[in-house]
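Regression test attached.
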Amino acid sequence: MSFFGKGPVSGTGGKLFATAMMLAVCLFVAFVAALLAADFWYVWANAASGTGPDRTSLIEKLFEKEIIAATKLSFLTSTAATAISMIFAVPMGYALSRYRFPGNRLADSMVDLLVVFPPLIVGLSLLVFFQTPAGKWIEANLLKFVYQPSGIVICQFAMAGPLAIRMVKTTFDEINPRYEHVALTLGCTTAGAFARVALPMARNGIMAGAILAWARSFGIFGPLMVLVGAVRMRTEVLPTTIYLEQSVGRIEVALAVALLMIALALASLVCLRFLQTNRAWEASRP
Amino acid sequence: MIDIRSISFKIGGFSMEDLSLSVGAKEYFVLVGKPGSGKTLLMECVAGLRRILSGTIRIAGRDVTCLEPRLRGIGYVPQDLALFPHLSVERNIGFGLKAMGLSRKEASVYVRWAADLLRIEHLLGRTVEGLSGGERQRAALARALAPRPPVLLLDEPLSALDEETRTELCAEMKRVQRETGTTVLHICHDLEEMSALADRMAMICGGRVVQVGSPEEISRAPSDPNVAGFMRLGTVLRGEAQSVAGDVVIELGGGLVVQAKGRTSGTVDFLVRSESVLIKRGSVTERSPNSFAGRFLALHRAGPIVLADAEIGTGTRIRAAMLPRDAEPLSILSSGDPVAVSFPPSAVYVFPGTHGNGAHSVLGEPAESR
């Protein structure tokens, strides 16, 4: 079905219907484009009119030590959170996709629950958890999280992990278990069939899950404010920088950081689309 | 070689109770049945891909009921072939050899042997994507054969192929089976495929084995209407039988009476073999047994023969399998034109078993099979 002439022959009613559908597409695309354009326009217009910092000083500000530290911490914590997310996502996605066990649906719903949880509540829940005896024991004996950089990682994991699990589970769902069955008859153990067949076939989906998790980790802000606060040079990541800069009236700097984050998000999206295109064969369910 | 004893299995609303089946060594055994009859589930039980509730499965004299698939000594080709898309043809074929722990050099010998056997040496460097249906089928077969399993399980591997390729591959598979001496359990629902391959066959229906034997034996004496239907032996009818002067007279209702050989009584299902039915233009001139006035319905070409359908009485449809030259006079008829339908009593085969009123049946001599 195509809007521009290649689909079935349609009358006036069909054309009106298609136009209504396409109107929604156009309005949404225009909405997102307008947001992006507004950011660019604000930074550029202020630089050109002299009411804000010029382009050179704007770029210099991006290299201030606070922003560089925040960038480093963002990269580090996002990568750590993504790694932890994938350590859970691969086995959990596989188990939820392949095994039928009591509580399967409950576990599946728990994944979705964190996806739909308001971010602030995730932060609040984590803060409350670390006030419980179990949480206090963890903080006393294992690792401190509250107002610590490690707290950033656990917030990012709580927000990004479910997305990665969902993506990996969907990938395994799309791979027919028959491939593994054949591997079993060809001499593989269950673990061997997973490692030699399911895992390589799910490779692109797993990478897409990791990119999604990384992009999500990179951008979270709400839970961080509750669990780790916004301490410069300590628990400051790029979203926190945007918040801190705009709270002291340096909107242009906040926007410049925002544009940097948008560029990284767009790069992630391009990688994601590329991997999803190359997942076509994974979906060949026999 | 494969000995299935009293196995029971249940999945959803489908169950298999007390099913037994034996496949001899080096035998090409074909399992046939309608979709949903349980053929694939039975094969998956033999492969160890599904757990059975009770019973035993022995392969090459070894009880494999509780063994993992990898320890059963089987090769398996599923309906969709399931060639690994992330591996080349060569690595697909060598997959099982690597799992067995063979070195690359040793594995290469077996891969070449399997590729040579299936005549796909030129495809070894190719990826699975882009192979034709026939090439994929050969590659899947080579992958299953490379570890030299004593038993090969094939689940409708030819179903997605065109008729010409299917015919060619049937001959290839039979050749490969003879050359390797592998015992094959093959599922299909195509009569031509079964005829080309089977040393023996079994019909499975609703999770139960209905009949086992060579295709010739089963054609000669099908155990029930389902078997006769699959084998396309003719028209299955039901009537009230009684023995009269050494023969059987079966009343179909509407004044139709069919004579058959043997002795039986009560409600019976019977087969009128298509190859013995004659349909002629015009009205009935002779008053011999099993001669009926009927109406012409249609002609269908089925390979080298022609199938002619006619109706006798009210709604009793009879099919005749005729040579094209015998069917020639019928080609000018329109639906509803009068025809004479006749068949000898020896063309009537009464199925064993009883119906309705518990009457007994003693089979007459089976009619000659084609």
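Expected vs. actual: identical. Chain B touches chain A at residues 44, 47-49, 68-70, 72, 74-76, 78-82, 84-86, 95-96, 99-100, 129, 143-144, 147, 153 (CB under 8 Å).
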